[in-house]
Design a protein that fits this description.
Layout: E1 13-14, E2 31-49, E3 65-72, E4 79-80, E5 101-103, E6 120-137, E7 163-171, H1 178-195
Antiparallel strand pairs: 1-7, 2-6, 2-7, 3-4, 3-5, 3-6
Length: about 200
Amino acid sequence: MPPGNDSNQVRGWMNGGNASGSEYAQDDEPWIQFNFAVPQDLAGMNIWNHLGVWEYGETGRAIKWIQVLYLPEGADTFEPLPVQSIFAPPNTYGFDAADGFCMIDRIPRDPQILPILPNNMILFEDIVTAEAVRFEIHTNWNDKVFRIGNSSDGEHANPSYVGVDKVQFLLAPPIPEPATMSLLALGGLALLRRKR
C-alpha cells in the first residue's frame, strides 16, 4: 500500500491496515514509504510518533522498532540505511543500528495539546542520496511483533493501522564546489598580502 492517512479518527502516515476490508484482516508486514520528487541528500530525520485514538487508549498504533531502508539514486532495490548506534539500544530481537534498525519513542504528552517539537531525532551514520525512504515496521507500542510467521501465530498486531504522525527529513548541508573552494583560498591569500 502507498503511504496515506485516515481522515477520521487517526492522523498521519499509516500502513495499509485492513487492506481486504474485513474487520479480521491483518497486515503482517506493515511498511510506510516516502517517495521524493527528486533525489535528496539526507542526514537524518525527525519523527513525531502516532498518538493512536486517545479517547480509546489505543496508543499501540504508534511504531516502536523499525528498519529504515532507502532507495539509492539510480538503483532498483532498497538498502538498509545505517543509523547512529545510540538509536538502537540493547534489545531482545537482535536489531542492530548498522542494519538500519532504531527504536521510536511514544509521545508523552497531554492528548489535547498538538505536538510542536518532534520526540525522536534519528541521525544516519552517513549522508545518503535517496530517491525514497521506507520504514519496515517490526513492532508497535502494544509490543506486537510483525514479520514473523503469519497472523494465526498470535504474534501480530491488532487488525488496525500502525504508523507515525509526522516525519521531517533532515537535508545535508550543500558541499561547496571545488571551484568555489579555490576562489575562497585565493581570496584568503589576497587578504594576507594586503595585511603585509
